[in-house]
Amino acid sequence: MKLALRELRRKPGRFALAGAILTLIALLLMFLGGLLDGLLASSTGAYRAQSADRIVYSASAKSSLVRSRITPEVRQQVEQAVGEGKVGGIGSVQLGARMDGRDGRDLIPVALFGYELAPTGLPADPPKAGEVYADRSLESEDVEVGSELRLGPARSPVTVIGWIDDSQYSGQGTLWGSLDTWREVTAANRPDAVAGDGVVQALLIEDAASDPTTSASVDEATGGATQTLTIDEAIAAIPGVEQQQATFNQIIGVTVVIAIVVVALFFALLTVERTALYGVLKAIGARSSTIFGGVVLQAVLVTLGAAVLGAGAALLLDALIPPGAIPFVALPGRLLSSVAYLLVAAVIGCAFSLRRVLRIDPASAIGGSA
Amino acid sequence: MTTATATDLALRMEGVRKTYQVGDEEVVALDHATLEVGGDEIIALVGPSGSGKTTLCSIAGGILAATEGSVVVGGHDITGYSAKQLTDFRREEVGFVFQSVNLVPFLTARENLLVVDEVGRRTGAKAKDRADQLLEELGLTDRANNLPGQLSGGQKQRVAIGRALMNEPSLVLFDEPTSALDTKLGDQVVHLIRDEMKARGTAAIIVTHDDRITHYADRTVHITDGRIDA
Predict the structure, then answer these.
(1) How large is the ipTM?
(2) Whole-number Å distance between alpha carbons of A255 and A258
(3) How far is A346 from chain B (nearest CA, A)?
């Protein structure tokens, strides 16, 4: 082991090529992961921002907020089923927003949400009519606290009174106001989508701490008129989310396989190069396990170094990319899991050298052929 | 001939046979070899290429297992040892000096000696003391921190001898130790080997073509076609 460490320290050049390739692979892995996280963040933020546990759609909506309508009668049934837990309506509409200082055709795409149960980070009561909290990503569109946004063709005015973090929806910044604000704006701009008095798109449920509501019991209480999902299930049901995840995870998987191949090839070559040295070490009493342990240690350390450099580059990228340019976020969890994948790849890659190490004959150190 | 008694023999080989299967044919590398080496005896093992001297040396050092016969080194009967037992045995009981010296190129002279300790059960400070002592005795103290690439041929050979002596072996095996050296250096190395072995009372088998070594050895053993000449 000490031998392997000393070689790393004294002959770093020998590992530079593998280190450089692995650094690029690490960066690619973390960049892909960051893109996936960024894409997911920008399409699921409005759901993740909810402090509620469940969401109730109408059964015919097929888990789509836009298609869902909950009538006051159904709401009453849900409230009865939930008992002590809290129930609140939610509605959304996607519109273009105009703002002073911008060209009249330069619209900011926004999703306006009306709510009763506050998302994480907002005061319990919704703001009064005509006032909204804005997603912080809208800062990159020069929206400020106090800005007046005029929504849709009817130019319904709303005033920004504060910020909410990480609540994007369908890649757009969101605005959060009362159900009344939502109804008003929808009625003015989307007469086709307008909801009647007391009608909301969906219901959010905060389970009573003592007794978590089951989704099935809610749907049973409404006689099958609703489809109740946990927030995680609702996120997975957002169109494109699962497909994005599957696609990116496949590319990430292939990248990890490439890392395994790089480590396997490189350390197999290094092992061939060291056949004579390993023969001598075996002759003087080194066990194969000690020698192989050294190979694994070197591979793990080179990969760890590469992964740390890759993570540094990913963080730098995160800092340099202007907000809103590409959906990339460097999350600590993603970076750590990428490092873990690479380390596993290093160990698996080394395993291809194991047979070669085992086969080295200590007799090769002496004289040659008998 | 040696006058040593059976108890202080460094090596006793009896009726050792080593065969290899090459295709359908059985090749006999060593044929009923019997050899005894006294506790501090230096033996020159001489024979043409392919005569079996390397095989004999490898069996005596626990690198190869004999097909038949018994091998006792420093009181250890290694005849039936498994590969793992032989590995441990080599680490504890035998010293090797290889033909091409084979020092670890990225380790200093001192660290090359300590490798013996690092691949086995570590003794730490004790091993360091022993390495320093050996380097001093071999006249290498001022070269202790040099890499092999910074050492002359003779100095490298001395480091290799130091490495072979690190585990206080009962038997040191030298594989053509002078073949890569010029006459003067070869002579120095042979002197050194004799002095070091005799000073420690350690037995040695030196595989060689070199007549100078047969001159310095206590006894010369000839081997031809796998048979030790009487």
Answers:
(1) 0.89
(2) 5
(3) 23
Q: Is B180 an interface residue toward A (CB < 8 Å)?
A: no
DSSP tag of B41:
-
* Residue where the block lists tokens 């992964």: A307
d(CA B180, CA A152): 91
What domains, with CATH codes, occur in chain B? 9-105+151-228 (3.40.50.300)
Q: In terms of Cα–Cα distance, which of A183, A214, A198, A199 is closest to A93? A: A183
Say whether A367 and B50 touch across the interface (CB within 8 A).
Answer: no
For residue A367, list chain B residues with Cβ-Cβ distance below 8 A: 53-54, 57-58, 99, 175-176, 207
Non-local (6+) Cβ contacts of B59 within 8 A are B13, B16, B18, B30, B65, B66, B71
Quick one: A355 exposed, middle or buried, by C-beta within 10 A (0-12, 13-18, 19+)?
exposed
For residues B68 and B16, is the Cβ–Cβ distance under 8 A? Answer: yes
Per-residue pLDDT of A97-134, as tens digits, reads 999 988 888 899 999 999 999 999 999 999 999 999 99
> pLDDT tens digits, residue range A141-168?
899 999 999 999 999 999 999 999 989 9
The Cα A128–Cα A120 span in angstroms is 18
Distances (CA, A) of A115 to A74, A123, A145: 18, 12, 20
Please list every residue in chain B whose beta carbon sits closer than 8 Å to the beta carbon of residue A282.
87
